[in-house]
Amino acid sequence: MDEGIFQAYEDEIQALEEEIRLLTEKYEDMQQDSTFFSDEEILKSINSFQRATQGETKEHASLSNLKAQLESLEADLSFLIELTGFNFISHSKKTVEKTQNGTLQKHRLSGKCHSLSFQLEFQLLEMENNEEVSAVVSDLSIIMESTEDSNVSKFLSRTEERGDLLTFFRSISTYAEWYEHRKHTFLHFKAKYPEIVSLPEGLLGDFIILRNPKVSGFELMIVWKIHLDEEGITTPVLDLLPKIPKQVLEQRMSSVESIPGKFRSALRLFGIEAAIENLIKVLGSGK
Q: What is each CA distance from 48 to 33, 53, 54, 66, in whole angstroms?
């Protein structure tokens, strides 16, 4: 064989061997880079993973805590509404003036006490003196449902003049409780004695009518007023007004005249519900 040709083959083989060697080294380097890490690199990776995991855990725990706090606050709010009867629907405030002596803010507040709605508007001046904070209410305006009662209107006017928010909330709470109690009592007797009890003005009225369906023309009206004086004292006032046929009234005048007094005595002895119950039973037993 020609020596030149042989040398060409030899050179080609060597070149291929060199290329194979280089490729082998490169492959081994790549394998080492992708599968082997130093202790420091491994530790960094572990710490990074732990931080990420802890962050997710803390975020989840934080959301769980916020949810638990929200549920607790909602439970507390429901308890306060049940306890006081007050449910505040909206509130806004605006700073009118701010000085070194204090801050004057205008407040608007709306809500309900049991079933009675109200709206308040007032200015509150907060002053700080020797680390003591005092507050003065002024320009108080009160709008409230069911103010057709002149006594309630007088109380609200008096409270506005004094700027006495504490008396308003305390007194309206008691008044609204009696208001609800009257409605529930009327509803109870109407449901229990539908043939005898009627509510001409519905549950919002302040009286009920008692009739014996077997005795024509005879009826009793129980009037239940809720008196609220200018000082905020609430007093239930009940009375009985009989309606008697003329011929019966002429024959038994003394007996008829004694009915309201006996009813008031029963109120003092037995309370409102028991006195009304006894009266209904006596009326219903009449022939």
A: 20, 9, 10, 27
Q: Are 283 and 262 in contact (CB under 8 A)?
A: no
pLDDT at site 151: 86
User: Are 219 and 231 contacting, i.e. CB atoms less than 8 angstroms apart?
Assistant: no
Give per-residue pLDDT as tens, 6-65. Answer: 566 566 667 666 766 666 666 565 555 444 445 666 566 666 766 666 666 665 567 778
pLDDT tens-place string over residues 91-103: 999 998 888 778 8
pLDDT band at 218 (very low <50, low <70, confident <90, very high): confident
Average per-residue pLDDT for the chain: 80
Closest CA to 260 of 279, 235, 234: 279
Q: Which phi-psi region, left, alpha or beta, contains residue 155 (left: φ > 0; alpha: ψ -120 to 50)?
A: alpha
Cβ-contact 163, 135 below 8 angstroms:
no
Closest to 102 in 3D by CA, of 131, 72, 125, 86: 125
Helix (H) or strand (E) holding 35: helix 3-35
Q: What Cα–Cα distance (Å) separates residue 161 from each residue in 106, 121, 164?
A: 17, 13, 8
Number of other CB atoms surrounding residue 156 within 10 Å: 22
Residue type, 38: S
Radius of gyration of the chain (CA): 43
Place of tokens 């080609």: 12
List the 197-198 sheet strands across, edge first: 197-198, 207-211, 219-228, 234-243
Q: Beta strand 197-198 with 132-144: parallel, antiparallel or unpaired?
A: unpaired
In single-letter form, the type of residue at position 130 comes to N
- Please give the model's pTM, rounded to 2 decimal places: 0.68
